[in-house]
Each structure stands twice: as C-alpha cells, then as structure tokens.
Amino acid sequence: MNEFNGEIKKMMIIVSKATLDSVYAAFILANGARAEGIEAEMFFTFFGLEAINKKKLEHLHIATVGNPAMHIPTMLGGFPGMESLASSMMRREMEKIDIPPVHEFLDILKASGVKLWACKLAMDMFHYTKADLYDDVDDILTVGAFYDRSKGLGTHILFI
Predict the structure, then answer these.
(1) CATH homologous superfamily of domain 11-149?
(2) pTM for this structure?
C-alpha cells in the first residue's frame, strides 16, 4: 500500500486576476514553492492573462474601488487618478524591499523552473495569440490539459 505523508510536491497556481496585488501574491507563492524544492506551475486565465501579456504586464494596477484593504471610502477610490496613485505607491514600496518588476519576476520564475501556461479558452475569448505573450510562456493549455498536469498525490491547486 502506498501511503501519503501529506508532503506538498507540486503547487498549481491559477491566476485569474491581473491586479498588482493578486499577481505578486501568485508570483511570491510560486517562487517560495521553488525555494522549498516544490514544483510550481502557473495557469493564467481570464483577466490573469494580462500578467503575461507583453503590452500589459508592466501596467498592472491596484483596484481602489470596492477593495476594503485600501481603507478608503468607495467613492474616493473612484476619483480620477486614485488607481494610478495607489499603484505607483505600491510599486515604490515593493522597490524598497527589492521586489522585482513583473517582467523581471517572470524571468526569475522561469529560471527557477516554474512552468507558465496560458488558458486556451481565455486566449480565444480575448483574441490573443502566443505572440502577444511573455516570450517564455511554456504553452497554451486547455483546462483539461491543466488538470492532467495536476494529477498525483501531493499536488495542491490554488486559485488567485
């Protein structure tokens, strides 16, 4: 009988949003998995595709409307320029502690062995081609192919 001791062997991280905070959370978790010797793969779907879209990946923002962590009234979050201001403040704070920009972080993830996958359905829906994506994206996968890659004891799926 094959016993499983609960060890995490692989993290499969689904990135469904491209807000600055969501993308960096996913990147940090994937990077941390690799630092611990755990396999990591990332599946970018729906708006999460912007995190690997060459034209958009360095222009991600923080959501200021409806974000309770901003601690500002919803009405203020909707004022012109608030999203850009909050995003630039967050980028400055991340720079202070040496968190790399999105493109550089993607390079680091790839160098550490993280697999990057784009969702075929979302690619078709947004009319993207592989040429629109960060050059080192491994491939475009269907959801079924992603689940096939997720098989096995010790694999955890995380949705962000």
Answers:
(1) DsrEFH-like (3.40.1260.10)
(2) 0.87
